[in-house]
Amino acid sequence: MAAIGRFQKGEDIFYAKVVDGELYRLRGDVFGSPSFDKKPTPFKGLRTLIPVVPSKIIAVGLNYADHARETGKPLPKEPLIWFKATTSLIPDGSKIEIPFPNHRTDFEAEMAIVIGRRVRNVTPAAAARYIFGYTSAQDVSDRTIQNAESQWARAKSFDTFTPLGPYVETKIDPHDLTIQLFQNGQLRQNSNTSQLIFNCFQLVSFISTNITLLPGDIILTGTPSGVGPIESGDRLEVRIQGLAPLVNTVK
Description:
Fumarylacetoacetate hydrolase, domain 2
């Protein structure tokens, strides 16, 4: 496979492979051994959906040293994780909605791991076999609530607070990729996944020793330094090397 997306036309929802601007419909189980139509399906009239439907979203905090420094928090000795509501997911092109305009709400560009096989208690060395691919994401955060509470799930789980997509790239090495966020065309975050404190394979291993992961589950790997507030009318673009850009506006 390569870049896999999920699309809708009318009542019809389907997966497809995206190659050089062409879309080839997938037949069978996307996490199994699917086949693809030889004739492309026109993009016209299609709506791009979130690329997978996870049973859960697991976020990882303070996983870039520079971001930990800018928050004034110590580096974690093991991955800091929490759950985000799946109802917070929105696809590429959808609007992020700020529920409390008087609160500070921040963007956070992240690379997301997509699980491809049921996994429990796997080693880092074996973790790659259970990963379906990678996609772009944001972990939008209400800082006012986050700073007032001892856990972060509510501050990061409002509807529209997890933009994801547009596609899952299934053939990419996640360990040395540029990750950037542009706000209204201005570069705000600029780092590399090589700077992750706990890399993707280590995260899958750690999480799977505590929580069974299922096909389609999402792990948000953390955000680098440069996070900042969003306002209505903003255009936010996450660019990760080798992945399709994720673009959302703010309402």
